Amino acid sequence: MISVKELGCRFRVRRNEHVDALKDVSFSVAEGELVALLGPNGAGKSTALRVLTGLVPPTSGSASVAGIDVVADPTGVRRRIGFVGQGNGAAHEQRVDDELHAQGRAYGLPRADIRANVAELVELLELGDLLTRPVRSLSGGQRRRVDIALGLVPRPPLLFLDEPTTGLDPHHRAHLWEHVDGLRRTFNTTILLTTHYLEEADEHAERVLVIDHGRVIADDTAARLKRDHVGHRVTLDFDAADEAVRAAKTVEDTTTARDVGVDGATVHLRVDGGDTVVPLLLRSLDAEGTTVRRLVLTEPTLNDVFLELTGRSLREGDRYHGEPEVTV
Ligand SMILES: Nc1ncnc2c1ncn2[C@@H]1O[C@H](COP(=O)(O)OP(=O)(O)OP(=O)(O)O)[C@@H](O)[C@H]1O
């Protein structure tokens, strides 16, 4: 559905000064997939969407979207896709139903199709109570739903969403995701989206593309990225430092743990599949008479993956602190 090869996009910011918003970006998205683009501010996520939706021409490389070359036929691309950018849905007087129908006419759909498509989306996105309201009167979450409906009126097989949940409270974010998941079930819509919420990408995306300084630095399922780049973090507390030193040796002898370190009476380590390795490790320690006083097993996050790949956090001002999964 999307095929991107060595795509570059350079902007001139001043005389003799350029920004490479995208550098040698290659990836593909299969039909029906939901892929999330993650990256810090200025990484190039929105530029990637703007190039793929035919709004900005790339300066190198090639991209085909829904079978159409974005450089040769950007208008053709736009006719085949839905794009919900940041800050769509200007605060205007137009009623929601007029807006939805106007969108169908702009795409040249027959009247009967417009009526049927709008009716279906109104039900799916629960817009029934909002139809006669002016767009300016809607809340952020309601407007986002209308934006998505607008993107879908022409029934595109492919939808681009630029930060669809930014600015929404957790309740409305969850609600919007229910709608997005519903769209996929109903229409098998292929979706490429950007988000700053790592948990959303983790939970809903089949694949995550991590972008940094205009380059794709990782492309895989969230589970594999976490397993391959981070693994579980384990902290074991003992009564005394000499016990911790002995335990660290046992850890190294009996597991494939990485980064094993001792800090006073505490041992830190990282291990793949910690939930199965740790019980075995506890048995070995127990067998040699070493008692673990406290154990913390920390599930990796996509932020840990980014931290591991770049040495920086995706969340500004963050240092590493995962949420403890199990504390014994
Ligand atoms: N029209 C433009 N002219 C000049 N520079 C631009 C333009 N659009 C984007 N850039 C620059 O390209 C880089 C990538 O920007 P982009 O908006 O794609 O990042 P992003 O990952 O979407 O960031 P954010 O998460 O903050 O939205 C940034 O350095 C940005 O300043």
Keywords:
alpha/beta, Rossmann fold, Alpha-Beta Plaits, 2 domains, six-stranded mixed β-sheet, five-stranded antiparallel β-sheet, 11 helices, 15 strands, 38% helix, binds adenosine-5'-triphosphate
Question: What does this molecule look like?
Answer:
The protein has 328 residues and is an alpha/beta fold. The chain has two domains: 2-220, Rossmann fold, CATH 3.40.50; 230-327, YebC, transcriptional regulation domain (Alpha-Beta Plaits, 2-Layer Sandwich). 38% of the residues lie in helices and 28% in strands. The chain is built from eleven helices and 15 strands. Strands 6-7-8-3-9-10 form a six-stranded mixed β-sheet, sandwiched between helices. A five-stranded antiparallel β-sheet has the order 12-13-11-14-15. A hairpin with a 2-residue loop joins β4 (60-65) and β5 (68-69). α3 (96-106) crosses α4 (111-124), α3 (96-106) runs parallel beside α5 and α8 crosses α11. The two termini are 47 Å apart. The model is unreliable at 317-328 (pLDDT under 50). Adenosine-5'-triphosphate (ATP) binds next to β1, β2 and α1.
